Amino acid sequence: MPLPKMPTKPATLLPVNEYPKAQPGKSPVRAVAAAPVEADPVEDLISGKAVPAAKSTRARKGKAAPLAAVPTPQGETATWPARAETGTVAKLKETDIAEPHPAKHKPVEVNVKSSTSRRADKSGSTKVFVLDTNVLMHDPTSLFRFEEHDVYLPMMTLEELDDHKKGMSEVARNARQVSRTLDALIANVDDDAIETGIELAKLGNKDAKGRLFFQTRLQNGPLLPEGLPVGKADNQILGVVKALAAEQPERAIVLVSKDINMRIKARALGLPAEDYFNDHVLEDTDLLYSGIVQLPDDFWDKHSKNVESWQENKNGNSTTFYRVNGPFVPSLLVNQFVYLEPTGAGETSFYAQVKEINGKTAVLQVLRDFSHAKNSVWGITARNREQNFALNLLMNPECDFVTLLGQAGTGKTLLALAAGLAQVLETKLYNEIIVTRVTVPVGEDIGFLPGTEEEKMSPWMGAFDDNLEVLNKSDTDAGDWGRAATQDLIRSRIKIKSLNFMRGRTFVNKFLIIDEAQNLTPKQVKTLVTRAGPGTKILCLGNIAQIDTPYLTEGSSGLTYVVDRFKGWSHSGHVTLARGERSRLADHASDVL
């Protein structure tokens, strides 16, 4: 049944005492007289103002909840139950009315502090953070990320670090790095100093103004509820937290752990526990730099005074530049894309890129239109505005580092491969395309793969094979033999490499594509980007909504890290692709599923 349309005249909420009671044997009430109210509650709900809901009578007297009268398209008045929880606040969003399905919202990472931590922040007192082992293994520098607060390490944390130090995995390397840091901190320190705390700023980390404490004695007596296994490492750490809280009731003792179940157990026992979020680049990924900004409609009215315009020949193409001055300029960044869509008939779109910023003066470069067939890249043209921006970055030899974000089907891999083939085989700007990606399986692992490095990586490169097939079919005049020869030539210029063998390498004049970069940690991204030699262009592609690596979130992903750190650099660029162009089926599936 279709939902009723939004009434043109706002409805009113009936007071509880004026709602007519149903009588047995009679049909349900179809229309009720609305009592006059001073303020219009539905208008307040739509505008976002809080309206106190009516008190619940269902729980106390067994009566029905109050109903709100809403006109239906047939002119009748339907009755919808209103919220009846005592002390709650009812709000209605415009999206709840306009959309036929419930509005889907992206889960926002909210780093909620414990009440103990919030009270300490309000009073200005320092806290003692008890670190779980997984925090140290996730971020080896976490010891120095707590500002003026103290850090406490239980003996069980050191035991677990010792258990995980063997091997060549990332976790083992982090455990060994933490052990070396702790060894440097306790070097040349008296036994009394260990009891009173070691200064964390001893190794030159000036931001760490607190002290490091070790567990030097066992707690006396059972502090946890009976029935919990004492030999379990998590329970022993919880016992240390409870013992510290009993010894120092005047200080805030907070457990920091990446383990969700550990935090749940701590909160169930009445102990304050928090997630470790000092490694997050952003609290909310909605604030992540998109690389694109829409100019206000009155931009030229406020910035056309003393405007300068000239043309230059860059990379064999004539390019127009504008030098503008105005109040909107300081909010821009170098290499950021700006656009202004037409508001009336006869106007054209304005797409440009910020090349220089000096105070309130900026130089804007008009973009090349890659949506036109004459500017196609290896037979590929831009299908939307964001793809046009991305191709301008990919085909710019002055841009050494490009990041492309976007959901599945937005064309990240296809655009990157097309730009790489055009600059390797046509303009000879680079001599080879190198493709790599993180080998994190979505389902169960299929075991060891036979063959060489490239043969082992080939099952992970199905996305590139699909895109190469599309690019090969774009040349319709070549025929089957011509396309086969072109495919062999392309294959000879594309090398597939594994991330495991990247350390120590230097790439010269390469077009390096890093796919699925959202599964990389910031440290792994640094290892890859620092491989670039002279004349090398690096592309990072990914979708931060599809992270498969444990302990990585949208805020702490390496892709989020490099997007935030590289913004504003004159030789890097970023574009967030917004529209899917794969097929109408894929676009509809991404919206409704």
TrEMBL record:
Cellular-component GO terms for this entry: cytosol
Superkingdom of the source species: Bacteria
This protein's UniProt keywords: ATP-binding, Nucleotide-binding
Listed CDD domains: PIN_VapC_PhoHL-ATPase
Region annotated Disordered, chain positions: 1-27, 51-78, 98-121
Pfam families from the UniProt entry: PhoH, PIN_4
Record GO terms (molecular function): ATP binding
Annotated PIN domain residues: 127-264
Residue ranges with Basic and acidic residues bias: 98-108
Entry's family note: Belongs to the PhoH family.
Name the UniProt record assigns to this protein: PhoH family protein
Organism of derivation: Massilia litorea
